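Hello,

I think I submitted the zinc ion job twice by accident. Can you confirm which output corresponds to this input? Input:
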Amino acid sequence: MGRIYLLDVTNRDGVQTAKLGLSKIEKTLINIYLNEMGVFQSEFGFPTTRHETRYLTANLELAEMGVLQPIRLQGWMRAIIGDVETAFKLVPNLRHLNLSISTSDQMIDGKFLGRKTRDHIISDMVEAVDAAWALGAESVGANAEDASRTGLDFLVKFGLAAKEHGATRLRYCDTLGYDNPFSIYQAVKALAEKVGLPIELHCHGDLGMAVANSLAGAKGAIDGGQDAYVNTTVNGIGERAGNADLVAFVLAASKSKDFAEKYPLASAVDLTQASKIAEFASYAFGVPIPINQPGVGANAFAHASGIHADGVLKDPDNYELYGFEELGRGEPKFVETGREIIAGQYSGISGFSHVMGKMEVSFASAEEANEILELVRYANVESQKPLVEDELLFIAKYPDIARKLLTLTPLE
Ligand SMILES: [Zn+2]
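Support: Only one job matched these inputs. Its output is below.
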């Protein structure tokens, strides 16, 4: 029986969203939180983009150190041989790749403007897949951009060519959020049956169906005899109307009517981390969590009307599908209302020692404290907002990694 793996793309689709971005330390914390939650894979960035190089290398180093384990870190790039070569030149330890190319006639005609035919799309992709294997890849996903507006016959041909060259998975991208649960189910089931590769679902919310389409697509892949890999982002942040929300998808897959028995998640997800990762992403992106967000919104467990309040007090199952404790909620929140000392880019050692002392962090020497403070200053320069406790703790614990993440000198 097929299973559903989670593949979060916050650090790729999320950060390429217009008007939004994350610092390299924020991206690193997202990877750490995803790992703590039990997410299978993080699409952690852009190996051909030079300002990502040190971040990607440092995160692969964290994986080697066991900090980012067992999560799999995978880079995203275009499915052209030059991108694959650049990726391995800049990030030699990269082992997991997703190679993306447009497959729809709309994109082939409207984007490549006659420079590429369908045959070129396939030859570019298979050459890129070959190059990835030759340069040391351990897994290679072939990414069909705009798959939902691509004819099934060509998608099958694309998938079979990828498979013939050893591709590990086929990513079905509903790039414009054009599918509905019925259409994506049919398309993905047929692809799974005819291509015989695990299928990734990459769904967008332009019509408000990213989570529903991901669920239906996963069912299609499994009914077609393959595993499903669902692309999510934290709080659904992604291009335009966004992607499938990580927490909402996990809730849908594990709690919706009669689904999980036949279509299980590949491994347990620790939903008690949900509130923490959602709040951190909200803070880091500067985007509030909608009050009615599934599971983590302020109103997700709020009851006001007489009938509902009475019912939920008698038995929570009357008006709640799942408990707030499962989402890591219920602890009272501490909000400072008096004097606050904040560690930032202009901080001195006294204020910094006070902030770290409150978290019970002490330093072996004044030199060590000054070294960490200097890194904290630079982290604040990069993020331009007060660092959260976990960022300060991360910098204090892994100063050498933090220094790499904060080194933003343009490369040659
Ligand atoms: Zn996308």
